[in-house]
């Protein structure tokens, strides 16, 4: 499964949606035009720090599993500095069954 194929309630969730609206006079650039600068895990969702043309923004990524949040987190952490558009093409690890150790 590719990152861009993650779904929530039947709809795709990639690219991630902005958490905040653009400031007055600020262009509302799409998150897939940016570069991943970092991320924070909050329970079952990831907050992505994305730089779009020098503007640092935050986007939320939340989906109905599988894969597990930790598996997606590992892939994204390994790709800090990559363009969001390219990250959507990344293959995610195959789901593991119960009782199998996490990576």
Structure description:
This protein is α+β, with helices and mostly antiparallel strands. The chain has a single domain, classed as Beta Barrel (OB fold (Dihydrolipoamide Acetyltransferase, E2P)), CATH 2.40.50. It has two helices and six strands, in the order E-E-E-E-E-E-H-H. It has a four-stranded antiparallel β-sheet, with helices on one face. Strand 5 and strand 6 form a beta hairpin. The chain starts with 6 loop residues before the first strand and ends in a 16-residue tail after the last helix. The model has no long low-confidence stretch (mean pLDDT 87).
CATH level-3 fold name: OB fold (Dihydrolipoamide Acetyltransferase, E2P)
Largest sheet: 4 strands, antiparallel
Number of helices: 2
- The proportion of strand residues reads 25-35%
In short:
With 103 residues, the chain is an alpha+beta fold. It is 13% helix and 28% strand. The protein is built from two helices and six strands, in the order E-E-E-E-E-E-H-H.
Blueprint (SSEs and pairs):
Layout: E1 7-8, E2 11-12, E3 17-18, E4 35-42, E5 45-52, E6 55-61, H1 69-77, H2 84-87
List the keywords.
OB fold (Dihydrolipoamide Acetyltransferase, E2P); alpha+beta; globular; 103 residues; 4-stranded antiparallel beta sheet; 6 strands
